[in-house]
Amino acid sequence: MDRAGWTSKLAAAIISGGGIVPFLAGCSEPAIGAAAAQVAEANDEKSSNAGAGSDGAVTPAGPIVRTAAKPITEEYSAKVPPVMLASEHAAICKVNVGEPFPQLELPKIGGGNAKLADLKGAKATVVLFWAPDRWMAEGALADVAKEAATYGGKGAAFVGVVEGAPNDAGQKLINAAGTTLTQLADADGKALAQVGESWLPRVYVLDGQGKVAWFDIEFSEATRRELQQTLAELTK
C-alpha cells in the first residue's frame, strides 16, 4: 500500500474513534514495517528541508538577531530616563539631550508675541509640539495640562506649540487643555524645523539652563510615564 493509502486508512481509524493501536494490530508485520519505513522517509525529508525557505534559500540555524534601539545621546542623569530611539527616528531629531534648546520667538494664541526664554521655568520647562489633526494631540495636551497642575508650582513651566494655521479644531483643543499651558503658534513650521521633522506630538523637557534633559517623539503611555519621571527629578 502506498503512502496515500496508509494515510487514508489511518485517518479513517482516528476519525472513527478506533485509534492507532487497533489499526496497527489489524495490519500484517510486513505492512507495519512498510508504514514505519514511509514515516522515517517522511521525517528525513522534513529534516532536510528544515533549513530551506519556500524559495529554497537556506535560513539561519539560530535565532535572527535584530539590533535594538539604543540611547542616541548620553544620559542626562541616572534618574532621568534615557532617550531611546530607533536609528531612523534619531535621524529626524536635530536637538538632543544635553544640547541647548532653540531660542524660539512665536506669536501667542490670543495675541502678542512671546520668547521661550521668557516663559521658561526655574527648574524645568516642558515644550509640546502638536497639531490638531494628529490622533494623539488631545491626549498629549490633556496629559501635559495634568502635569502642569502638579508641577507648575514647583518651578516648572509648560508651553504648547501648535503647528499650522489656526483653526477651530485647534482652538477647541486649546480651550479643553485650559490656561495651564501657554500656547504659541507655529503657522509656517519653522520652529518645529529647528528641532526635528514631523512625528507629532513631540515633547521636550528642558532643565533650568534651557538644555534638553529628555524628549520623545509621538506620544504614548511610555511618554507619559517618562515625562512624569523627568519632572519629578528636575523639580526636587
From TrEMBL:
Residues 95-236 form the Thioredoxin domain. It comes from the Bacteria. InterPro entries: AhpC/TSA (IPR000866), Thioredoxin-like_sf (IPR036249), Thioredoxin_domain (IPR013766). GO terms for molecular function: antioxidant activity; oxidoreductase activity. Pfam families: AhpC-TSA. This is Thioredoxin domain-containing protein.
